[in-house]
């Protein structure tokens, strides 16, 4: 195999050449380049298997070169080097399908280990192609296990389970009814909750595999990874000796810590008890019951044989009386604040659980719907296309959903229905924008003021005004700027500062976007008094 090393700093190239024993990594020849243009020439005239490329280069950078290689030479395994731990770079490297991303300065043994893994990947792909050529079709899919085959292992239909076990056997997995197993369920909150995530399925799976390896949860232990209907990743660990039983909580903690560092987002990992494959469904049901009790969505590593969550039932009789009295007095904001404070309290003292949240949701619903009836409000008029009746009725599943439900329904009741509520929220938001026009306003800040999520508020604002909220904020700043330019002699630079723009050129560009002229040009056109 041949490797191409690209970096505009010659000292870096020479250092890597001397610091790494490439022959021990099965690299036959190392080509070097100091620019993207030079690298293209080498790529076009030589057979390159692995490309180690710097990102920050003059003229054409490493990401642009990787885009070209991905489109024209997709078989090359690409590794990126950078001196800046920038998430935008990491995200772009995932989009480009890069094998790994190394932040410099990195020890030579770390770079060597990355190259070693790239070599293993290429060797595995070569073996895979050879097996395919011999007709061993199942082996082709061994590195990328079909979700359907693995998901059928959890089926209550024994014929489906039997067929999956047969397919796995043909792929080389020796999973038997009495094989020791342990189930891990990983909930990556930004992935499971969002419709559009910054994380990618395949990159998460690679991170899971790498983190298992970091936790020393490795051969002869096998890991089958799939995704359930809740967009959580389910890992079935199994073996046919005592290896799995020897894994301690420290192994799983190392797995969790590595995964957390790799993805850099809130994660909850639930580790089931030891079992055998014939008891898979019962164990899975027990873990899901445990997960349901994490209603506050706290990140962390949870060994499910331990008691992490409160088993107490919640007594809200006194709170309920107070809330009912406030509802009769039409003190809906006080009801909202009181319920939210109560939720904060039970979370802070760890008295939250699934059954308790269900009971609280049920009693709140009864109170709010009685309030609607007493005020002759049709229940269905309280809901919108973006937050419907079904969304409301499903809000018992976690604390965050229940908080949003309480904020929504109290506002809807106060305004006499969702339509009036929407208009009221938009008017409040507009007033808030005008009152804080000198600030560097964000959509999140305005949305929080009217107690809505940024996503929902953005849709609502667009629906009610026909205008994008960010555009509206900029437009209001321009109107205030025009007024200041027309009726004062304040320097343009101070006008920019007055409107929250510390970058004068940014202010000028924004103003020109709306008025087709710069602020200075606008002031010159002002008629003489």
TrEMBL record:
GO terms for biological process: phosphorelay signal transduction system. InterPro entries: CheY-like_superfamily, Homeodomain-like_sf, HTH_AraC, Sig_transdc_resp-reg_receiver, Tscrpt_reg_AraC-type_HTH. SUPFAM superfamilies: CheY-like (SSF52172), Homeodomain-like (SSF46689). SMART domains: HTH_ARAC, REC. CDD domains: REC_YesN-like. Pfam families: HTH_18, Response_reg. Residues 2-119 form the Response regulatory domain. GO terms for molecular function: DNA-binding transcription factor activity; sequence-specific DNA binding. Transmembrane segments: none annotated. Keywords: DNA-binding, Phosphoprotein, Transcription, Transcription regulation. This is Stage 0 sporulation protein A homolog.
């Amino acid at each position: 195999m041949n490797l191409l090393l690209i970096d505009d700093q010659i000292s870096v190239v020479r250092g890597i050449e001397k610091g790494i024993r490439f022959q021990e990594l099965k690299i036959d020849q190392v080509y070097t380049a100091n620019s993207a243009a030079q690298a293209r020439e080498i790529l076009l005239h030589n057979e390159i298997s692995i490309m180690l490329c710097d990102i920050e280069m003059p003229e054409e950078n490493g990401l642009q070169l990787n885009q070209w290689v991905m489109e024209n030479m997709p078989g090359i395994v690409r590794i990126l080097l950078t001196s800046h731990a920038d998430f935008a770079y990491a995200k772009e490297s995932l989009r480009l399908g890069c094998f790994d991303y190394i932040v410099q300065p990195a020890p030579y043994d770390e770079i060597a280990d990355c190259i070693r893994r790239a070599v293993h990947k290429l060797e595995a792909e070569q073996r895979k192609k050879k097996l395919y050529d011999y007709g061993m079709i199942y082996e082709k899919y061994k590195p990328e296990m079909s979700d359907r085959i693995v998901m059928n292992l959890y089926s209550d239909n024994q014929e489906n389970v039997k067929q999956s076990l047969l397919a796995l056997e043909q792929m080389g997995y020796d999973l038997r009814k009495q094989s020791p197993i342990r189930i891990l369920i990983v909930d990556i909150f930004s992935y499971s909750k969002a419709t559009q995530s910054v994380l990618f399925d395949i990159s998460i799976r690679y991170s899971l595999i790498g983190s298992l390896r970091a936790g020393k949860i490795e051969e002869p232990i096998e890991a089958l990874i799939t995704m359930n209907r809740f967009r959580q990743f389910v890992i079935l660990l199994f073996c046919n000796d005592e290896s799995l039983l020897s894994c301690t909580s420290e192994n799983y903690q190392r797995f969790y810590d590595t995964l957390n560092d790799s993805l850099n987002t809130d994660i909850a990992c639930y580790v089931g008890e030891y079992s055998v494959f014939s008891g898979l469904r019962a164990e899975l049901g027990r873990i899901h019951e445990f997960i349901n009790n994490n209603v506050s969505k706290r990140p962390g590593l949870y060994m499910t044989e331990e008691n992490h969550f409160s088993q107490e039932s919640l007594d809200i009789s006194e709170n309920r009386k107070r809330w009912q009295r406030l509802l009769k007095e039409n003190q809906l904001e006080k009801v909202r604040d009181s319920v939210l404070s109560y939720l904060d309290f039970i979370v802070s003292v760890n008295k939250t659980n699934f059954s308790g949240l269900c009971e609280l949701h049920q009693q709140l619903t009864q109170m709010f719907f009685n309030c609607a009836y007493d005020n002759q409000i049709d229940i269905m008029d309280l809901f919108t296309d973006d937050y419907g009746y079904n969304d409301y009725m499903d809000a018992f599943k976690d604390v965050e959903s229940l908080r949003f439900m309480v904020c929504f329904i109290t506002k809807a009741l106060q305004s006499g229905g969702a339509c009036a509520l929407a208009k009221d929220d938009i008017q409040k938001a507009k007033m808030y924008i005008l009152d804080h026009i000198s600030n560097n306003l964000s959509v999140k800040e305005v949305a929080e003021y009217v107690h809505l999520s940024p996503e929902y508020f953005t849709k609502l604002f667009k629906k009610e005004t026909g205008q994008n909220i960010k555009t509206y904020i900029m437009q209001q700043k321009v109107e205030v700027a025009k007024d200041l330019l027309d009726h004062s002699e304040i320097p343009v630079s101070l006008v920019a500062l007055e409107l929250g723009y510390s970058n004068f050129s940014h202010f000028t560009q924004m103003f020109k976007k709306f008025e087709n002229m710069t602020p200075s040009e606008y002031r010159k056109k002002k008629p003489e008094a």
